[in-house]
Amino acid sequence: MLIALDRDSGTVVTGPEAHTTQHTPHSSTRRGTTTDPRLPGRDANTAPRGVRADGGVVTCTATGPTGNPRVEQSRAVHTDADRESEHRYACSICGDSVTLTAPGNVTGRFDWFRHVDGTRDCSATDATGALHREAIELVMQRVSAIVGDPDLVEPETRVDGDDRFVTVDVHADSQHSPVAVEIFTAASHMHLRRRLSTLFDAGYSVFIVLAVNGRYRPRRVEQYLQRVSSVPVTVGRFTPHGTSTASSHESVDRGASAGSGAGGAGRVSLGTQLSRHVVDVDAITTPRLPAYMV
Ligand SMILES: [Zn+2]
Fold it and tell me: In angstroms, what is the span from residue 274 Cα to ligand 1's centroid?
């Protein structure tokens, strides 16, 4: 996954950001000391179990992809740096511990954090394309910063209305009213009338985020949305990892984006917070708006 909860600071960070605040190398050394079968006493058959002679308790977690149980010992073996890397970061979805991958070992944009027990990445659903998934993770990070508590933010949540439901990309329970973020990267139809009316009825305020190189141009969608809005509105922009500004549909406001923005890191802004006071959902009809938005 791209993001994780930093238990030290109580915030959600991206992998690249985590490395700017991390001072000790860890990943390769931790792996070597715990799962390398060439080391005596460390492999699947001879790993120590139960209570150790010095009183430390040994536990085995689920078998990782290597086939060797990941052995965790409560004292003596791990260095402080090892322990910090295993327990500092938590999966933003399931809450289990994740480790931060060393930059040289990152093989893809979602390889920054891995479950300590080696189980599958919680955010890796087959139905979610890589572009959409990156957007969801960056939006989760940004929404976490706004609501102030990463535990309140969830991806892909079903919201029930009176006679229908919508699945929102990112959902947050805030103290005042719940927040939903709808992200459009390659969807063929936005269904804004149905989505917004269902979410507004359920008490949500809504952010709309579009990929800068996605199917729809953010600026055009804004212009159409303005026709049914009572205040000036903007939509959020998602700029995928590795996008050069020159190749995107438009330049992006870097000041309103998440992430460092350096080295082509992905970034996102949220745009105007939409509610019934802002958008007249009954006015979302053709031909006032294009069919793909209605
Ligand atoms: Zn998880």
Answer: 30
Q: State mean pLDDT over 75-83.
A: 48
Whole-number Å distance between alpha carbons of 278 and 212: 23
User: CA of 150: how far to CAs of 9, 93, 126, 183, 223, in Å?
Assistant: 11, 10, 24, 19, 33
3-state secondary structure of 104: helix
Please determine, for residue 222, whether its predicted confidence score (pLDDT) is greater than 90. Answer: yes
242 Rama class: left (phi>0) / alpha (psi -120 to 50) / beta: left
Give which of 207, 14, 262 is closest to 254, Cα–Cα.
262
| Residues forming beta bridges with residue 113, ordered by sequence position | 100
Q: pTM to 2 decimals? A: 0.67
Per-residue tokens: 42 = 């460390």
Sheet of strand 89-90, all strands in order from the earlier edge strand to the far edge = 11-14, 3-6, 89-90, 97-100, 113-115
86 forms bridges with which residues in the sheet?
none
- Please give the distance, rounded to the nearest whole angstrom, from the Cα atom of residue 93 to the centre of ligand 1: 5
Locate 7 and state its tokens.
Answer: 């238990």
Q: Are 240 and 134 in contact (CB under 8 A)?
A: yes
CA gap 153, 140 in Å, rounded: 7
pLDDT digits (tens, 9 = 90+) for 141-200: 999 998 988 999 999 899 988 888 999 999 999 777 899 999 998 877 899 999 999 999
Burial 79-94 (b: 16+ CB within 10 A, else e): eeebbbbbebbbbbbe
The radius of gyration of the chain from alpha carbons, rounded to an integer in Å, stands at 22
All residues with CB under 5 Å from ion ligand 1? 91, 93-94, 122
